[in-house]
Amino acid sequence: MDAVRTLNTLQTNASCLEEVKRQRSDPQAQLEAMEVYLARSGLQVEDLNQLKIIHVTGTKGKGSTCAFTERILRNYGLKTGFFSSPHLVQVRERIRINGKPISPELFTKYFWHLYQQLEEFKDDSHISMPSYFRFLTLMAFHVFLQEKVDLAVVEVGIGGAFDCTNIIRKPVVCGVSSLGIDHTSLLGDTVEKIAWQKGGIFKPGVPAFTVLQPEGPLAVLRDRAQQISCPLYLCPPLEALEQVGLPLSLGLEGEHQRHNAALALQLARCWLEQQNYHDIQELKASKPSIRWQLPLAPVFRPTPHMRRGLRDTEWPGRTQVLQRGPVTWYLDGAHTTSSVQACVHWYCQSLERSRRTDGGHEVHILLFNSTGDRDSAALLKLLQPCHFDYAVFCPNVTEISSIGNADQQNFTVTLDQVLLRCLQHQKHWNCLAEKQASSNLWGSCGPESARPGSLLLAPHPPQPTSTSSLVFSCISHALQWISQGRDPIFQPESPPRNLLNHPTANSGASILREAAAIHVLVTGSLHLVGGALRLLDPSMSQ
């Protein structure tokens, strides 16, 4: 699609991105620049008030919270807009109406309208085009206004205070999901600093809700709310709402999704009440929490629309399971320490439920990648208790050639960088495995040899005390080796001939072909999960 290829030119290329990081300007000025772009596009900040926005930030679970909230409100017969990031397979996923990505025709129409509008301001002294994410944010506002949605659920990109979505002045309600460490180069290196950034979406007189946080960041959120004159409420746990009604069924798996659902219910309730919907029965009004020094949000009986909304929520790539014959794919885009901990808990619970009783041999595989400034060694250490037989690493590149796959092109990193990063992941994993086997081996971990142009970059010979590890040059080759043709839907036309060049890959292939069951956890990056889903679920590319 020409529109997507042109959109990709707004990505900052890798060398320029490093220069921007070194010379990062005042973040407040960046937010003001977003308002200038909005005006150039033909809108004023006040126009966004028509969208009756629900604005949601957080470190873990903000996307799932938005998905729950949108699905609940759609059940009321409302026309919903939903802006989220990143996309998994197609960029159109970021802008949804009534839960579905906008059509290619609508995407093309609004993209070129906005692009041409901004091009008119091109001159020698100003950059005419905003960056990739800013452009999509502007485009989402235009789509939602022109398509006359009843409300818009807007997920913050990074942080909150200086995120380009924060040009919103009068949302109906704001939400903060679970906080943790992420994007430290932009947001700060402590949860308290990150909480300050997240609290930047609070607005005077606009109600906001948060799930229970650790004491330090919760105190920061409370102080931010007081400074801004924002009424901030603490969500009671889902159990409190279930005690006054029947148990709630969630469409998303994982114990951590209950926190997201509790927040979504409060956001939906607050939005509905402010729009004069009166079918919600409050059983306990909000009251101060002496321990947390915040008022508790009301306990109420979820309506049938709410219950169905929670049950019917779909959010691909988050605690998602694809059962394909003997191969089961577990996909979760967890990429922070807290979200990986939740992912491990979910994965182990899922394995327990699916445990075979016939004694057949099962193989457990990790497919992992991590990007940005994240501590991959810390994330991999959290995954060790899963006792994988193989750890497989690859960059977030679906195929070796990305021609024809404009939705997943990424100009912000070079191929050399992503391959070297995968080799570092493998080195971390091997050191962790060897340290677990014997503390005396920690000092002997050296750099792995690699041939950067090869399909199988750096296999680690099988050891009796450690997981065998492999690095592949793209997601497709990793999936082909893992599935060995046994996934009835993922059937590549011509598997590469050098897929089994190394003894570890060769011997592992024999084991995989004979295994009664293969369990694969794909995690560490939403982009990795998206690339895998593009291959495993062709319907997402249609």
Derived structural class: alpha/beta
Give the number of helices.
18
What percent strand? 5-15%
Number of strands: 18
List the uncertain runs: 13-23, 440-455, 458-465
Ends apart, CA distance between termini: 13 Å
Please tell me what the overall shape is: globular
**Radius of gyration over C-alpha positions, nearest whole angstrom:** 24 Å
Strand order of the biggest β-sheet: 4-3-2-5-1-6-7-8
* Sheet with the most strands, sense and barrel status: 8 strands, mixed
Helix content: 25-40%
Average pLDDT over all residues: 87
Describe the protein's architecture and organization:
With 542 residues, this protein is an alpha/beta fold. Helices cover 39% and strands 14% of the residues. It has 18 helices and 18 strands. The chain has helices spanning 2-8, 14-22, 27-40, 62-74, 104-119, 132-146, 184-187, 191-198, 215-228, 238-242, 257-274, 304-312, 337-353, 376-383, 415-437, 475-483, 503-514, 526-536; strands at residues 53-57, 80-83, 95-97, 100-101, 151-155, 173-176, 208-210, 232-234, 281-284, 287-289, 294-296, 299-301, 320-324, 327-331, 362-368, 390-393, 468-471, 517-523. An 8-stranded mixed β-sheet has the order 4-3-2-5-1-6-7-8, with helices on both faces. A 6-stranded mixed β-sheet has the order 13-14-18-15-16-17, with helices on both faces. Strand 7, helix 9 and strand 8 (232-234) form a beta-alpha-beta unit. The longest helix has 23 residues, at 415-437. The protein is globular and about 65 Å long. The model is unreliable at 13-23, 440-455 and 458-465 (pLDDT under 50).
